[in-house]
Amino acid sequence: MATAPTSEAAPPRPSRLNPWVLGAGLAVVVPLLAVLVMNLGRDPHSIRSPLVGRPAPAFSLAPVGGGAPVSLDSLRGRPAVINFWATWCVPCFEEHAALAAAARTFDDVQFLGVVYEDEEPRTQEFLAQRGSSYPALMDPEGRTAIAFGVFGVPETFFIDARGQIVDKYVGPLNRGTIAALIARAKGGSP
Amino acid sequence: MSRLALALLALAAVPAVAAAPTTAAPAIEAPRSRPLSGPELDARTNDIGGLLRCPVCQGLSVADSSSSMARNMKAEVREKLAAGYDQEQILAQFERSYGEFVRLEPPMRGVNWLVWFGPIAVLVGGAGVVVWAVKRSSRGSEATGSTSSDLPSRDTLPSDRRLAAAVRRVRELAYGWPGGIPPTAGTGTS
Asked: pTM of the prediction?
């Protein structure tokens, strides 16, 4: 026969995986998996405060019931616990007794309450009923709350003797947590 | 193809970049802009409020929210603008308290570049793949020299003698060609 047959009519080779397709797939899937795995243990609702490890924002606030303003600078030299709270906040009721007791126990730590979006007469009434062992400061226009990056109440900041924020705690505190976080603010291991 | 490879490489680098600490927000220095007042101050307050996320709302900007927290933040923006701070300084100040979360538009830095330009990179990469695939398939059809399929023409016969004889016999039976030879074919006979 004159014409040469076309040998390409042979049956197709068994299909192999295209390395480019495989590479592209892996390049998309592997980073996504890595991000997923890295964030498995993270609570998506908790946003780490950028202030932790930094100096606490300066403030100077008048205490409830009158008196000289309390400023951040006046606390220098000893650890502080700054609790943002309000009388309309139910979890704040729960932690109030624990905080008041801790303020009496840890007399080398300055406890401060900053009243968040609340009125002075109501705050005074609340404290008269439930007792208080540390100053409550009024925060007009929420300046200090914004400077501390407060999202809601209760939120509590633990500050060391140099004025650095050591920890931020969101939600109601109990005695055990307060003691552990104060130990950290004092520079000891928790 | 190299563009695609680059895009894939960039994607693969995501976890590495995400793991790196984010760069700190720039410090607040002296006001960089001129003090604003009047309608311009109102307009700019609203503009910047639209770039700030209200911390107590669900995905609302400070400009759109009527919460007291948003009102307080707006008041602070207004005050800063009146004092001559520019937009970036004001946003950076809120970012120091609340973290990058407070910005509704992610700033162009670090892993955020991916948010801004990732989709464009993927689009360009995808277009590259399409162009490459189209080019390859058209080159493939040029190589065979014909636009039609790989079917043998009516003149071709297998090189195997017995098979060729069988094909001729079939052609004779099917088409009535004497000897299985196409009527107009000048060649094809041995």
From this structure: 0.69
